[in-house]
Each structure stands twice: as structure tokens, then as C-alpha cells.
Amino acid sequence: MANIEEIPTPARPAKLNNPRRRFVKKTGKKLLRWIDKVQSKQGLVPDLPFIPNEHFPYLEPFAENWQKIAEEAREVLKYRDAIPGFEDVSPDQYRIAKKNQWKTFVLYGFGQKLETNAKLAPFTTELLERVPNIQTAWFSILAPGYHIPAHKGVTKGIVRAHLGLIIPKDYEKCRIRVGDQIKPWQPGSLFVLDDTYDHEVWNETDEERVILLFDFDRPMRFWGRFWNKAMLKIMKLTAYYKDPKKNLEDAESRLEAAIRRNDANMEAMSD
């Protein structure tokens, strides 16, 4: 069994110390907590750490086809050097993602499909396109022995699905806590959670863990949907959205270069 690696938290990136950025983030958190209360009351699904799958029948094809999705994840892992760490995508995550121990191969970001990445996982992308109001989706790749510290998500307006793909044999030592409940991942298992509850992750094994993680709008009544759309529009005006968007574009460019190099190498070998 691997020991949990307690990597020291790196210094706060200098760009995050911008007074305007800090003010926007602080004010935004207060606004979002108020909106969370509205969305909880407006929700058409229970406000629980783990929400029963029966509320999301349109997610059944993911569990039914998990092996095809896992095959595409393995193809993606061939380009692991070009896959960014979460902290490289979103600098605001520097506290929970360190030294590329948590890599993210993004297929959707803020509702927008990443075309280059999607070409490496066409079947997975097709399934994601059927999810109502998909917001983000990525293959979440967690290094052996890594611990993601406790944290909370941004908004109750979305819920998050996890689909187990490449899971350590000793799966009970690879788990997530949401609120006061703990679940291990298993190959082919799918569960839905509310990440505004305090949550953390452990991979206490010597093996890598890969899941498909995706966010979509919480089913809500009118005012819940109204505030969710308004919040997302406001967020797209901030660095919280602009920085990851630019970083994802750069990551896609690096992936395209890696694919070209691989194709050139394969062609050279066949000559």
C-alpha cells in the first residue's frame, strides 16, 4: 500500500494576489452562498452529498458502456506528458492540486467542447453530448499515493458525476468523502454528488486511478435555473473563467503537437 504523499502546499501564485481579483473572488463567494440557498429550495433532486442515480436515468448509458469509455481513456494516456495538471489549467486550484499529481484531460470546459481533445475520445464525447446542459467533463487522473485536501465546489447549480474506469485493485483504499459519507470507486460504477459539500479524496495505493468526471446543471425550477444562468454569465467575465479557458487552449495546442510527433514517428517506423 502506498503512503499518502503530503506534498507541501506551494506558494500562492503571484497573479492570484491581485487586489481586484481577490475582491471579486471574495464577493463572488458571498453571492454564490446566497444563490446556493435559493437553488437548494428550487431543486428537483434531493440536496444530499450523494444523490441517488434514479434521479438521472439519462446517465445509464455511461455505466452500460464504461469499458468502451475506459478504452478511450487508455488511448488518451498515451499522451500523458501533454496532459496538464489541474493547477496548470486553473491556478486557483494550487492548494489542492500539486506537482501534476492530479491530471485533467478536458473534453468540455464551461459548456464548450474542446474539439482536439474530443477527437481522442469520440464515443465518450457522444455520450456527453446527450447529457442535459453539460458544463465540464474530463478524464480525472490521480497519481498513486496522492491526497486531495478537503475543499468545496463553486455552485449548487450543478451536480457532478463520477464513472470508475481504471481503478486500483485494492479499490477500497481509493475513495472520496463527501460530507460525512465515503465511497470507493469501482470499475463501471457511477455515482452523482454535490460538490458544494466539503469533500476530499485519497488514493492510498500504488496504482493510478482514472475516472470520467463531468458536471451538468442540477434539475431545478424556474428561479433556480434563472440564477444559475445569471451566475455562469457573470463568471465568464472573470479571471476564474478566462484563465482556465486560455490554459485549455494552450494544452490543446501541446496535444496537437504531441499527436503530430507520434504520427511522424509511426510513419518513420513503417518506412
Quaternary structure type: single chain
Helix content: 25-40%
The CATH architecture designation is: Sandwich
Structural class per helix/strand content? alpha+beta
**Order of strands side by side in the largest beta sheet?**
1-9-6-11-4-2-3
Total strands = 11
Could you describe the largest sheet, including whether it forms a barrel? Answer: 7 strands, antiparallel
Report the total helices. 8
Low-confidence stretches: none
Helices and strands, in order, run as: HEHHHEEHHEEEEEEEEHH
- Which CATH top level class fits? Mainly Beta
CATH topology group: Jelly Rolls
Whole-number mean pLDDT: 88
CA distance, first residue to last residue: 45 Å
User: What shape does the CA trace take?
Assistant: globular
CA-based gyration radius: 19 Å
Beta-strand percent range: 15-25%
CATH superfamily: B-lactam Antibiotic, Isopenicillin N Synthase, Chain
Number of domains: 1
